[in-house]
Specification:
alpha/beta, Rossmann fold, Arc Repressor Mutant, subunit A, 2 domains, four-stranded antiparallel β-sheet, about 40% helix, elongated
Length: about 190
Amino acid sequence: MIKQNVNIVNCNLLYEILKEIKENLSFNIINYKNEEDFNRVKPINFEKTLIISNSKNTILNKKNVLILNQLPISLKKLVELININLIKIRFNSQSKINIKSYELNLNSKIFSKDGINLKLTEKEIEIILYLDLKKTKRNVLDLQKNIWGYSPDLETHTVETHIYRLRKKINDKFKDNLFIKSHVDGYFI
């Protein structure tokens, strides 16, 4: 799993403490000495990151800001508070993934368009995400290896069967038989 980033702004002592235990943390820490340093960095996706500060300033206009004004706080409680906020951020970021004109909610496993919802299985979600992520045609052997973890020399029709059923579900629900397309070189979205 990819570690989420925690941006620490104007809390140098906190950064030094967390840096000492960083190998035990489930997140990355990035330090900014002040707000000016923070504002100079490349644009940050504020929907998917946590910012910790000890003062109310203009970064409060951003989402996901944790202000440390309830001090003192134990290190254990602080790390727990950070992890809870990161879980909320991850949950919210997974609740809406746009793929073509559809919306995929990983939390509820609902694929939707224009108010019509379709419940998907975990494997169907994996297929859609993989095909959307790669942006190129993916052949059966590639899908077999990367979605199912099967050996390329194993003869099976698992991929074709799953793709066929997924395409049928989408066509039956949304009348869209072109969402997952097939080509001589493989499948693609």
